[in-house]
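ASSEMBLY PREDICTION REQUEST
Request ID: AP-0331
Submitted by: J.K., bench scientist
Number of chains: two
Total residues: 432
Priority: normal
Notes: Please return the full assembly, not individual chains.
Input sequences:
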Amino acid sequence: MIEAGKPIFVQIAEQIENDIIDGVIEEETPVPSTNEFAVFHRINPATAGKGVNRLVEDGILYKRRGIGMFVATGARQRLVDARTDQFRANFVGPLLSEAAKLGITAEQVASMINAESVTDRNASNS
Amino acid sequence: MNLTEPAVRVTGLTKKFGAFAAIDDVSFTVETNKIYGLLGRNGAGKTTLMQLLTGQQFATSGTLEVFGASPVENARVLQSLCFIKETQKYPDSFRPEHVLASAPWFFANWDADFAASLAQDFRLPLNRPIKKLSRGQLSAVGVIVGLASRAPLTFFDEPYLGLDAVARQIFYDRLLEDYAEHPRTIILSTHLIDEVSNLLEHVLVIDEGRILMDQDADELRGSASTVVGKKTDVDAFVAGRDIISRDGIGGLASVTVTGLSEAERAAARTAGLELSPVSLQQLIVQRTTSTTSETASTTDAWSARS
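STATUS: Completed
Returned structure:
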């Protein structure tokens, strides 16, 4: 679950973000404590704490004194928006530059994507 | 005891055995309530350093403070330390139950219930004579004492000779759970870097008696990347960077460098280079081998001259 080479606190933050986006952790509900994260992922509690704090700084989580960390209202939408921007930068950009290298136009790419999603749908229906 | 002070503060510490400097002008601090990894090759000076910190060896020069005072013959400091060594000697007639029964005399925070549950986890036969225990069971005795002592500063020096993979995992899990509930300073010396790397908050790498790295574990992780590709492209990309190691075959080169920003990573990918992460263990292996090969080449240069 934890991979080498990438700071662990970044991975912890991303996993919490994914859980919020997937609806596993809902808004205004608590997230596991730093110690629970540490024991579960077998990582140093300070490292887990860094991941959680990163989300607090971003306003995704907030602290209820004496109780723990909660997911902020509107966190899910903000994460989806941020991830959509990342998706464009990380996937759509490189996709188009590779396509351009091969002489594939943006329209051709669009029709490829359409054809692929139809196949996907058929595959999942069968 | 002053807990806002660092647990350990060492300045210009040197320990010589005859002409050989086992610890060579070393300075560092250990902050309280963190898990440190003390890593290095065989004979690098790890055990000597821990013996100095626990008052079992005397420094040749330099200053050394543990919880603000010298540990040598200092009961106040020594009672807050626990040092688990690879080879612990026990009285001949002892059984593990005797070790656990006498532990509270030495460790103020000793938790007998925790020790008993650990003994079950490790399936340690408490009433078998210590002489009859297997190597792994003997290591389990040390690990149990180290954990259940809850000493403010606990040293584990290669604690698990002969411990099987299951028992080592139990050790890591119990260490983490208990540390989360009872924060304390832990210095873990081991060769199994991959196994412990996620547990560590800070890493001290010692090589030939000197501190080679003194860094936050998270900063180290992901601080280096290996760039693989056509030799000319790789050379152009890594020019002027901090190169840790270099390898190659035919027209291909593989170079490990530190500190690549997100933009530089993107640039490398656009240039058709492959980037792969470097684990803590690989990083330390590369760092400690490169210094040795440098020494080797200096020696070669000397022998070539003579």
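REVIEWER COMMENTS: Residues 113 and 268 of chain B are 55 Å apart (CA to CA).
SIGN-OFF: pending second reviewer
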